[in-house]
């Protein structure tokens, strides 16, 4: 990784010294783009892993971690993505990005009181996000001292007391918000929501509000469950896999194993994405040692389709229309028996497909009719099909309608409730789905609240709380005065960056529970606390002995995770212990046995088993090999919908064609990135080195605007309310992307997404569908306005 100017908040790089970032250093190499033509994973991943382990001086310890990650019987769950663990006992069920994340957590660098005594918060605000996190692990609780502009040490008891006094002093419980990142384990999640609701609020914003909220709402409406129904065994037996809006090689790299296996057994693998990503070409899976030795790649795709940004719904509608048009000559093109027995709304949907013109489908999808018919033919010829999708589908105004359209297509051929078929959303963070399952929901059901009240003896509030977007707005208006962040980096993850910063700074108190220093610690309220916690790889000892925590993967499997490493500091507390400490201080008269729960996490699980559907006999079942799968009624063709059937939806196609002179821009992660954590300025699979402040553009769009390769450009977004936001001095990179489309990296481009630009269907920020203009800019460094 190349050192860059650590004072530039739009850049990243390696600080030359743990306490002295390289202010003013110039890159050793200039930014570079060169198309990537190699297989995904393979020796490129092996080389990257070696560099990471050597660079962090964690060769021995990191190698031990690799052998313990994603394994039953004492292993720990990868803190990266939520892809399910291998079911066949694979010894190296790991990936490059998982190793990056674990090594990032296991670093030997430390951030203690000496560091904070040497740097004011004002100084740290000027550091890059990479430089902040690269300082190492936090070691003790810290409190902000406004007189000196430094964080100073504080005892745990005093920190909890300060939080408790502030929460008790609020005029109303809804003046507090409790944010959750996807890394929080199930037991801590349950305690966290219990604390919030005993305090009297459902203000539980979480990262799902920004990623898969549309998925949950769509599947709930269509099938009566907010989760996918397919599991990993279904992926192993499907005849066709349709992978939509996901860069699997970076965001869920272990999926490459399933894609390669599908191709080898003769299944069709269709990738649908505006960009042809590395996972949609070929791979060498690193644990296939023969293939590695022979440099023998396997294809991971039989068909690639590149719809315009936002065009997925039109594509799926076209596939459904093609299938329905075949029924005259081919009555088995649709499963009439399944439709009549299990669904509602079919005739309305069939009429909608009939009256949707092919010309409009082509225009909105950005694809020719012939390409859509090819995809439809694959679907018709497959007996069992799975559709998988990620944020490229959900982060749009019409994200809910698109997911429901996918379900419509599955229902047409009865691809539900049988092996090798069904919807399979790709969740990003390792326990983001478990967070929602275990109660992190600003819109809880009455049934859940009734059980929580009965089992835990509290009176939970019945009014809906605030999600992420609403929380930022409420902070601005002074309606949310205390913000507690349980993991993550809210300041960078949320939309409308400068507006989010202002909201956090308007708070009376911000509390961040973290493992490493990040932007949310230097963008803070009038009072601010940093509470350092154990990492997923670290041993968690409580009174009853070594503890384990559980997580839920993206296919509803729940299993245990046990840390293997000595904690980075003796002063670190576990997340359940931190939550219990805050809860006891804020609720001194509570009958909830907070301290008793923390002594032995089995006690938390026993209570969860009485509250949560599907968690019955939790402690026994979670200790089974590979854990257990939460029952999905729709998988058994039991639909908890108003009609008691799977519901076809009949939404009109949205108009997603950009206005003349504008582009549709989607934000995304680079390969050397995990959510808001930046490992380097490189993006290997897209051929980028030493550059993050870029925009990928279609060559014809660039030519039309007089923009050359690597020319500086100015990017301006226009929000619904007419306001504009700009990024200046970014570099234009010519890329294979449809005309009228552009893409760039989050979190840098989050500044372009106004807080008011959220989906009216899901309340998600529409970070994959921003309206922008791109013009040739002046030479100079990047900046935001």
Could you please describe the fold and organization of this structure?
By secondary structure, this protein is α/β, with parallel strands linked by helices. It is 34% helix and 17% strand. It contains 31 helices and 34 strands. The strands form 10 sheets. It has a 6-stranded mixed sheet. A 6-stranded mixed β-barrel has the order 25-32-29-31-30-33. Strand 17 (509-514), helix 26 and strand 18 (527-532) form a beta-alpha-beta unit. Helix 14 packs parallel to helix 20 and helix 23 packs across helix 25 (497-505). It starts with 31 loop residues before the first strand and ends with a strand.
Per-chain topology:
Elements: E1 32-33, E2 40-41, H1 42-55, H2 59-68, H3 96-105, E3 110-111, H4 113-118, H5 121-124, H6 129-134, E4 137-138, E5 142-145, E6 150-153, H7 156-168, E7 176-180, H8 186-199, H9 213-223, H10 232-237, E8 240-244, H11 248-251, H12 255-264, E9 268-272, E10 282-284, H13 289-294, E11 298-299, E12 303-305, H14 312-325, H15 336-342, E13 343-344, H16 346-355, H17 358-365, H18 369-381, E14 385-389, H19 391-394, H20 399-412, E15 422-423, H21 432-437, H22 446-456, H23 468-476, E16 482-486, H24 490-493, H25 497-505, E17 509-514, H26 519-522, E18 527-532, E19 541-542, E20 545-546, E21 549-552, E22 557-561, H27 575-586, H28 594-599, H29 601-611, H30 618-621, E23 628-629, E24 646-647, E25 663-668, E26 673-674, E27 677-678, E28 688-689, E29 694-697, H31 699-704, E30 712-718, E31 724-734, E32 741-745, E33 770-776, E34 783-784
Parallel strand pairs: 2-10, 3-4, 7-16, 8-9, 8-14, 9-12, 13-24, 14-15, 16-17, 17-18, 25-32, 29-31
Antiparallel strand pairs: 1-28, 5-6, 5-18, 10-11, 19-20, 21-22, 22-23, 25-33, 26-27, 29-32, 30-31, 30-33, 31-34
């Amino acid at each position: 990784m190349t050192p860059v100017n650590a004072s530039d908040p739009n850049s990243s790089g390696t600080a030359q010294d743990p306490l002295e970032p390289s202010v003013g250093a110039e890159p050793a190499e200039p930014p570079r783009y060169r198309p990537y033509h190699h297989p995904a994973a393979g020796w490129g991943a092996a080389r990257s892993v070696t560099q990471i382990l050597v660079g962090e001086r964690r060769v021995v310890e990191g190698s031990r971690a690799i052998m313990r990650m994603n394994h039953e019987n004492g292993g720990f769950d990868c803190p990266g993505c939520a892809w399910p663990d291998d079911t066949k006992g694979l010894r190296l069920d790991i990936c490059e990005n998982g190793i990056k994340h674990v090594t990032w957590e296991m670093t030997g660098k430390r951030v203690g009181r000496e560091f904070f005594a040497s740097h004011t918060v004002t100084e740290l605000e000027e550091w890059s996000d990479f430089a902040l996190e690269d300082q190492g692990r936090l070691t003790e609780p810290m409190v902000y001292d406004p007189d000196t502009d430094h964080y100073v040490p504080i005892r745990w008891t005093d920190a909890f007391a300060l939080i408790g006094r502030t929460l008790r002093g609020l005029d109303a419980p809804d003046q507090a918000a409790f944010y959750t990142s996807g890394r929080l384990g199930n037991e801590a999640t349950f305690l966290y929501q219990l604390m919030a609701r005993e305090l009297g609020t459902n203000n539980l914003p979480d990262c799902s509000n920004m990623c898969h909220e549309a998925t949950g709402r769509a599947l709930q409406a269509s099938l009566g469950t907010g989760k996918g129904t397919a599991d990993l065994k279904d992926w192993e037996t499907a005849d066709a896999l349709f992978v939509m809006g996901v860069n699997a090689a970076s965001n869920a790299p272990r999926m490459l194993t399933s894609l390669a296996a599908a191709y080898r057994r003769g299944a069709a693998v269709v990738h649908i994405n505006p960009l042809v990503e590395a996972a949609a070409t070929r791979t060498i899976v690193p644990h296939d040692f023969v293939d590695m030795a022979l440099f023998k790649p396997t294809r991971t795709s039989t068909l690639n389709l590149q719809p315009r940004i936002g065009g997925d719904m039109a594509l799926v509608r076209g596939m459904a229309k093609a299938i329905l048009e075949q029924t005259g000559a081919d009555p088995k093109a649709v499963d009439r028996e399944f439709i009549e027995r299990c669904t509602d709304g079919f005739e309305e949907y069939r009429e909608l497909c009939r009256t949707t013109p092919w010309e409009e489908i082509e225009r909105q999808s950005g694809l020719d009719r012939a390409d859509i018919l090819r995809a439809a033919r694959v679907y018709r010829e497959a007996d069992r099909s799975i559709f998988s999708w990620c944020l490229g589908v959900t982060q749009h105004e019409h994200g809910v309608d698109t997911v429901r359209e996918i379900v419509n297509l599955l229902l047409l051929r009865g691809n539900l409730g049988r092996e090798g078929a069904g919807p399979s959303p790709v969740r990003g963070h390792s326990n983001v789905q478990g967070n929602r399952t275990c109660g992190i929901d600003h819109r809880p059901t009455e049934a859940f609240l009734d059980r929580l009240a009965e089992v835990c003896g509290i009176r939970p509030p019945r009014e809906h709380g605030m999600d992420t977007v609403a929380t930022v707005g409420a902070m601005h208006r002074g309606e949310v005065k205390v913000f507690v962040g349980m993991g993550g980096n809210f300041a960078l993850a949320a939309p409308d960056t400068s507006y989010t910063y202002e909201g956090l700074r308007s708070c009376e108190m911000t509390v961040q529970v973290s493992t490493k220093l990040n932007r949310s610690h230097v963008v803070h309220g009038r009072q601010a606390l940093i509470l350092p916690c154990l990492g997923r790889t670290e041993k968690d000892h409580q009174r009853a002995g070594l503890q384990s925590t559980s997580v839920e993967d993206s296919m509803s499997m729940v299993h245990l995770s046990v840390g293997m490493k000595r904690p980075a500091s003796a002063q670190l507390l576990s997340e359940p212990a931190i939550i219990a400490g805050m809860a006891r201080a804020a609720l001194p008269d509570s009958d909830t046995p907070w301290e008793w729960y923390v002594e032995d996490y089995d006690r938390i699980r026993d209570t969860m088993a009485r509250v949560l559907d599907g968690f019955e006999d939790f402690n026994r079942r979670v200790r089974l090999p590979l854990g257990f799968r939460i029952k999905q009624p729709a998988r058994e063709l039991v639909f908890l919908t108003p009609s008691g059937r799977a519901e076809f939806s009949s939404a009109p196609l949205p108009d997603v064609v950009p206005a003349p002179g504008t582009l549709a821009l989607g934000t995304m992660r680079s390969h050397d990135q995990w959510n808001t954590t930046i490992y380097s300025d490189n993006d290997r699979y897209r051929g980028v080195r030493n550059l993050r402040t870029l925009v990928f553009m279609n060559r014809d769009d660039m030519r039309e605007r007089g923009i050359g390769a690597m020319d500086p450009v100015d990017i301006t977004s226009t929000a619904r309310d007419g306001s504009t936001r700009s990024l200046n001095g970014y570099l234009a990179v010519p890329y294979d992307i449809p005309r009228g489309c552009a893409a760039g990296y989050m979190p840098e481009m989050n500044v372009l997404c106004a807080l008011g630009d959220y989906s009216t269907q899901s309340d998600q920020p529409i970070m994959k569908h921003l309206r922008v203009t791109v013009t040739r800019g002046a030479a100079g460094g990047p900046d935001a306005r």
